[in-house]
Amino acid sequence: MNEEKVTKGQRTRARILEAAEQVFAEIGYHDASIVKITQAAGVGQGTFYLYFSSKIQVFDEVVDDLNRRVRHAMIEASSAADGRIEAERAGFAAFFRFTADHPALYRIVRQAEFVSPGALKRHYTRIVEGYQTGLAEARADGQIGDIDPEVAAWALMGIGEIVGMRWVLWGPDVDPGGPPSEVPPEVFEQAMTFIERALAPTGATPHPPDEPGESA
Fold first, then answer.
1. Does the N-terminal or the C-terminal CB of the chain have fewer CB atoms within 10 Å?
2. What is the pLDDT of residues 26-44, one digit of tens each?
3. 3-state SS, residue 83
4. How far apart are CA 135 and CA 143, in angstroms?
């Protein structure tokens, strides 16, 4: 019986988080309210307070949940790759797929800059920490050049963030209010060519970009 209650509670909590993600993404933190979140989740306000103490707490947990999910998608995709460059390709492809399916990642994380700077810092540093470790191992193995793994991790994350915002969030017409899109194959290939050249060991010849439509 206790196990059934825990399972039901976990489902309810997840439903509230999902509803909060939707509300924060659609109308923003300041216009959101616990009433609107509970209405979207189909639960009462009393139920909300069983799991969260405030609007800011549920916002922070939405940021953490999005972070966990996008890191999982990237790690799962890149872990099967052969070598660091292929891992970059697989990881970036997974990141762009995730953001196309969950544009709330951009909208909510950017709100965190003003709403919860701690959540914003936590989001980016968690991504960089794992990234930095992989780059350090690749440098030690001679798969990439003699670059600072921490600097490279932040730079690569910045590329993914801005390229994704331009083509995923804004779409082909650079319309901030338009529907989410996908990174075009030719844009993906150009980004990967840039990244491969930046990471390549000294004297290595980067692969030419694939033809459009051949991206991972």
1. N
2. 999 999 999 999 999 999 9
3. coil
4. 9
pLDDT tens-digit series, residues 198-211: 999 976 555 555 55
Question: Residue 66 class from Cβ within 10 Å (0-12 exposed, 13-18 middle, 19+ buried)?
Answer: buried
Q: Global pTM?
A: 0.85
Domains annotated on the chain, with CATH: 1-53 (1.10.10.60), 55-216 (1.10.357.10)
Task: Give the C-alpha separation, 144 to 93, whole Å.
Answer: 20
Pick from 51, 50, 91, 93: nearest CA to 74: 91
Q: Which amino acid is at 76?
A: E
Tokens at 124, concatenated? 């980016």
The 10 Å Cβ neighbour count of residue 99 is: 26
102 touches 69 (CB < 8 A): yes
Structural tokens at position 42: 């189909």
Tell me the CA distances in angstroms from 171 to 21, 43, 70, 209, one per residue in order: 21, 35, 20, 22
For 9-15, the CB contacts below 8 A with 24+ separation are 9/50, 9/51, 12/43, 12/47, 12/51, 13/51, 15/41, 15/42, 15/43
C-alpha 160 chain-centroid distance: 9
Which two three-digit tokens encode residue 22? 């939707």
